Every structure is written in C-alpha cells, then in structure tokens.
Amino acid sequence: MNKYIFAGCCLAASAALVAGCGDSGKSKPGASPSATASATGSAKAELPKFDRSKHLSVFAKLPEQFESKDNPITPEKVELGRMLYFEKRLSKNHDLSCNSCHDLAKYGVDNQPTSEGHKKQHGDRNSPTVYNAAGHLSQFWDGRAETVEAQASGPMMNPVEMAMAGPESIIETLTSMPEYVEAFKKAFPDAEDPVTLDNAAAAIGAFERKLVTPGRFDKFIAGDDKALTDDEKTGLAVFVEVGCTTCHNGSAVGGKLYQKLGLVEPWPSQKDLGRFNETKKDEDKMFFKVPSLRNIAKTGPYFHDGSVADLGKAVDMMAKHQLGKTLTAEEKKHLLAFLNALTGDLPKDYIAEPKLPESTDKTPKPDAS
How many domains does the chain have? Predict the structure, then answer.
C-alpha cells in the first residue's frame, strides 16, 4: 500500500529522483564541467571520459537478497509473506493490498503522484518502490521505520490506506481461514501463538528482502564492459563528476542517508517539511531519505510528493537545487542514458500472484464505511 502521510505500505517511488545529490551542506553553486573553445570560438562543454577505477569505486553490485539477523529468511516465511502481500482481505473493504500501491509488475509502484486508499482517499506522499528497499537505512520518506518489517503492518491500520480497525481485526481475518493458520505455524514453528501482527509483518518483510532487481549495471560493475553503451558510460562519468554520488552511491545507488531537499537553492514547495514532521527538530526541516535510483526510469512520478512526471525535469531540478548547477544539453542527455541503464530485471516467477485461501463464514465481510 502507499507510503504517504501515515504508514507506507507493505512494504516500503520510488518514486523520486532524490532528496539530495549535494554535499551534505558543503556543496556550493558552480559551473558546468570545464569548457573549451571550439574552432569557431564558441564555448562547448567537454564531457568527462569514463574511467573504471575512478567512476565505479562508490558503487556495488546488488546482493541476491537483503539478510536480517533479526528475521532470517526461510522458504516458509517467504511463501506466507507473498500471500499476505497480495491479500486484499487485510483491508477494511477487501479492495486493497500491498500490491495495490506497490505493484510488483510495475517495478513496485503505481505510477501515481499519491496512491488511492480506503474510500478513494489520498495521502500527501508518493508511494516509493518496494524493490531493493530492504537494503535502505530506513523506510518511509521520513525514515520513521527502521526496517521493512517495522514498516509492513502500518498501512493495514492506517485510516487513509487499508483502514483495518486494529490488530484484532487483522488476526480475526487471518484465523478465519485454516490455510493461513497452517501457513503461520510452518513459518513460525517455535511460536506458541504464531498468528500475530508482528509475525505477519515478519513474513512480509522476509518476502520483500528477496525483491531485488539486478541488471546490466551489475554486470558492468562485475567487469563486463559491454554491458553499458558508450553513451551510458559517459553518463555514468557525468553522474560522478557533477556530484550526484555524494548521496547516490552503494548497491542501491541511494537509500543510505538523509539529505536536505533544496540544499543549495530553496526547494519550490515547503509544504512538507520531511523528517521534521517526525522528529520535531529544526535541523531536520526539508530533510528526506535519499531514494534509490535503481529502476528510476520506471518509477515516476518523482519526489516525495510525486509532483514531477518527467525524469528530465527531475534531473534539472536536482542539478539546480542540490548542486547549484545548470546541466548542458549533452550532460543531461548522457546522464539520462545512464539513469535508464539502472533499470533491472523483474523476478517474474518470484512475484507471480499466489492462490489465496477461500473465505469462510467466519471471515469478516467487506466494509465500505
């Protein structure tokens, strides 16, 4: 479900090109890369040449899965978590699931500025992608949940999202179907009472920890120079040279820190103050979790409010507000080529919708109120 104003959904837009490509408060407005005089005397920006040793050092391949010492991944947890991820009866009106806002077939998003919840309500924040999110430092745009497990159950009881009355109503629904009771016993064999909200969140979290999308960029990091085109390699060099890797680095190309949106030039909209809304600390005003740029070409619209539909415009805004720069047409062209190269492969077999248990006469009925 969606991660907007209260809890985000079963997960974990991306959708947002970044809450900060700058230098954590140290970036200063600057010019585009060095210019050279052309034969006619006009200035022409010189694009950086890709250097593997220089431009790849801050990146890493995606892992096969994101491990957790507190929630070891088991086949039984994953199977249960997959069922719960697609389970619409965990919403008050039986019409919403985690997959409604974080559609696994659409790179983990719904491509809407903000997602539609119970009674067609909308929150204020965009639903980020669930893919690779288990590797982030925290969940939600403001980072208020440390893990995907801590995040997973919130949307079920959020009145704007899935709108269940509370933990009791969730447990009543799950225990009304014998297949779920048996699945919880298999997933949590040592639990005296396996059907709990915490265990449901742990199962969803285990499922999400394997939602990983490796692609051509990972092959390139591993040494396959032909995995990226020349334009994409140049775009990678531009990405590094203009300063984007200050925030967007690591295996997820982001997701590892909080950054001020409007680091160099104030952001146009100050309506949402980001982490300040959670911490109430003045120094957290306009700070958001830096999103991953994996699959960024597929996960628009962008930013915490989903206010920008075009990736090129998002790039221009990041350059202006985070770096104090105006990209040349050639820089932008190659930068966009690189960002498109960050699109990975969906695990189609893993995300196939499972067969869910049939309702019984004890299963609560849909409630549209």
Answer: 1
